Amino acid sequence: MKDLYLVYKNLTRKKMRLFLTTFAIFIAFLIFGAIMTLRGALNSGVEMSADNRLVVVHKTNFTNPLPYSYVNKTQAIEGVKQVTHANWFGGYYQEPANQVVTFAVEPESYLAVYPELVIEPEQRKAWLNNQASILVGERIALANGWKVGDRIPLSSNIFSHKEGGQTWDFVIEGIFRGAEQKTDTSYLLFHYKYFKETQSWGGDSIGWLILTTEDAAMNESVAKAIDNNFANSNAETDTSTEQAFNKAFIEQIGNIGLIIFGVVFMAFFTILIVVGNTMVLAIRERTAEIAVLKTLGFASIRIFKMVLIESCLLAFLGGLLGLGGAYLLIQGASENLARFLPNLVLDQNILLQALGYMLLLGLITGIAPAISALKLNIITAFNRG
Amino acid sequence: MSNLMSQSTAVIVMNIRSLPRRLWMSLAMVFASAVVVAILLAFLAMAKGFEATMQSAGSDDVAFFMRTGSAAELNSSASREQVNLIENAPGILKDEQGPLVSPELYVIVDGVKKSTQQEANIPLRGLSQRGVDMRNGFTLTAGRMFTPGTDELIVGAGILREFDGFDLGQEIRFGKYTWKVVGVFSTGGNVFESELWADAKVIQNLYNRGSSYQTVRARIGSSDDLTAINEYLESEPRLTHEVQTESAYFATQGKSLEYMAIFGWVISSIMALGALAGALNTMYTSVSDRSMEIATLRAIGFSSLSAFIGTMVEAMTLAVIGSLVGALAAFIFFDGMNASTLGGSFTQVVFSFQLTSELFIQGITLALIIGFVSGFFPAWRAARVPVIVAFQSAR
Fold this sequence. Notes:
The complex is a heterodimer of chains A (385) and B (395).
Chain A: H1 2-11, H2 15-47, E1 53-58, E2 66-67, H3 70-75, E3 80-88, E4 91-92, E5 102-105, H4 107-113, E6 117-118, H5 121-129, E7 133-137, H6 138-144, E8 151-156, E9 167-178, E10 188-191, H7 192-198, E11 205-206, E12 208-213, H8 219-229, E13 237-241, H9 242-251, H10 255-284, H11 287-295, H12 300-336, H13 348-375, H14 378-384
Helix pairs in contact in A: 1-12, 2-9, 2-10, 2-12, 10-13, 11-14, 12-13
Chain B: H1 2-17, H2 23-55, E1 62-67, H3 80-87, E2 94-95, E3 98-99, E4 101-113, E5 119-127, H4 129-133, E6 139-143, E7 152-156, H5 157-162, E8 163-164, E9 171-174, E10 177-186, E11 196-199, H6 200-206, E12 215-219, H7 226-235, E13 241-245, H8 246-254, H9 258-289, H10 291-299, H11 304-334, E14 338-342, E15 348-352, H12 357-384, H13 387-394
Parallel strand pairs in B: 5-11, 7-10
Antiparallel strand pairs in B: 1-12, 1-13, 2-3, 4-5, 4-8, 4-12, 6-10, 7-11, 9-10, 14-15
Helix pairs in contact in B: 1-11, 2-8, 2-9, 2-11, 2-12, 9-12, 10-13, 11-12
C-alpha cells in the first residue's frame, strides 16, 4: 500500500508532464481504436459471411446481368439447398448524392438464404403481401428517420419507371434488424416482380444469384457444377463463396486502403515512441532518489516493481481514456456514416489488442529504468548526483 | 534594439549548442513533427493525384451527353435514335463526313490486379476513330490502332502497369469472347489510361447491346455553345439527356476522393495534438534544463525578452527540421506512388500520388503551428520566472 502511495506521488510530482504524457497516450489510443473499428467495419462483410453461401455472377464481370432462367436451373443442381437472386437498383433518396443500397429480390427465398435478417412476423407478412412495399434495414431507417408505414420516394440512377420519371413510391412495411451487432442492415429490399413490371426496359434478367449449399464441405463441388452447367452459354458464370466474393469486392478499393492503415499505424507507433522516450527520461531523472530509497533499506526488487508499476499505470491511464474517447467518437459517427458503412463496432478483439499495446508500452518504457534501478550502486549514484 | 538583437543571438546560440545535452528529447520532437507532416502529405498527395488524373481528362470543347440523373457514364444510356437526334443539335462542329460526334458504350470486365492477384473491374469502352480523335494527347506508345469490325483492342498504359495479362500481342478472354491486344496507348496520365478501347459496333454485338450506346461526346467551338444545345434538348421530347462540358463532368468525378484530403487533415490534426504534447514536454524540459543559465543571464542584465526569443527559436527550429525531414520522407515514399481504386463509374482508376509545392507549404505550416505553440508556453515560463526562483530550482 505504501508502495502505491510512493508510485502515486512520483507520477503526480510534475502535474504538467503527467498531463502532457497522458494526453499523448490518449491521442495514440484514440486513433488506434477509431481506425481499427473503421477497418473492422470495412471487413465485416467478409467476417460475417456464412460459410455455406455461394454467389453466382456473370463471368465477364459481376455488373453484367444473368438470364432469369438460371434461378431454376441452379436450384436443380445437386447440393444446392436454396437459391435466391438480386438486382442492383442504383437507388438514391431525394438527392443523387444520397445513395441508398437497394436490391430488387425474390422476397421469400431471399429471407431464407439470409437468416440473419430478423423481422417481426407481422411486418414480414405485410411486406410479402404488398408488392409495392419495401423492407428497410434498421441502420438506414435510423439514418433517414424512416418508420414503418412511411411513404418514401426512391429514385434510380439506372432505371426508368414505366409511367415516366425515375422515381418509385414505396411504402415501408417492415424494418429488419441484424441477428448480430455487426450484421449489415444499411440497405433496402423490394419485390423483383414489382421491379420487373414497373421498369421501362422490361426483360427478364437478374443481377446475381445467391444460394446456400446443403453443407459447406460441398461448396467447391457445387460451384464447379454450376459453372460447368453454364459453360459455353451466352452468359457463363463465376461461382465463389460469399466470403471470397466479399473479399474481392473490398480489395477493389485497392492499395489506398492498405496505405491509409499503414500510415495511421505509423502514427500510432510514433506517438508511442515519443511518449516512451519522455517516460524513460522522467524516471532516469530520479537516480539520486532511488539511491536514497535503497539507502533507507528498500529492497532492489521492490524498487524494480515500483518503477514498472508506475510506467504501466501511466500507459493504462492514457490508453483507457483514449479507448473511451474512441468509443464515444464511434457512437457519434456510426449514425452519421450509416449510408457508407455497416455498423461500427469497437469489439472485444480491438479492446484486447489495445490492452496488449498498453501493457507493452508500460513494460518497454519501464524496463530499462527499472533494471538500472535494480542494479544501481548507491555509492556511485550519490557521487554522480 | 541592437542590444536585444545581440542578446537574443547569444541566447539562441547557447540554446542550440546545449541541444546535445537534451539529444533524445529534441530528437523526439523532430521525429514527431516529421511524422505528422509526412502523414498529412501522404493523404493530400493521394487526393491530389486522383483529382489530377480525372481533371486532366476533360476538354472544354467537348460536349458530354448523359441520360439525366445517371451521375456516371456507366448508368447512362442512349438509343441509336437518340444519338441521331443529338447529332442534329446546334453548335456541334462538322467536317466532310458529318458532325463530329462520338457515341460510346461501356462494358465492365474483370482484370487481375498485379498487387493482389484479385479480380477487379476494368472498363471496356467501345468507340470509333472519331472518339479517339476527341481525346487530347492520345498517342499509341506501342503496336497499332484496332481495326474496326474485329475483336482487337488497345490497352491504356495504366491498365498495363497495374494489371496482369494485357501485354501487347496477348489474347484475353472476357466471359465467352476472346480479344487480342494490338496496341498500347497513353493519354498523358489521365483516367482514360485506365481503360480498354475497342470498336463500338463489335461490343454492341458481343454483349447484346443491340444498337444502343451509353454516352455521346461532341466537338463544339466553345462552352458558350452549351446554352443552345440545352434549349434543343429541352424542346426535344424524345431526348432524356443533359449536357455539360467534358471537363465539368470529370471535375465532379475528381472530387470523389476529396474525403481523403479531409480525412488526412482530421487524422493529422489529432496526431498534431499528440505531437504537441510531446513537443511541449521537450520544451519544458529544455527550459528547466537551462534554468541555471537563464537565471545567470537574467542576473547579468539580459532582458527576459531575449530568454523568450531564445526558447521560441529553439522550438521553431526543431519543428522546422522535423517538417523538412517529414516532407522529404513523404516525397521519397509517396510522390509518384502508383495506386488504384474504384472510381465513380464503378471501375478501377489508376493514378499516381502527387506532391505539389502547395501541399508542401500546407505541411510546413502545420509544423510551424506545432513549433509555435510548443515554444510559446515554455518560453513564457523562461521569461517570467523570477531570477531568484530560477536559481533555487536549478540547485
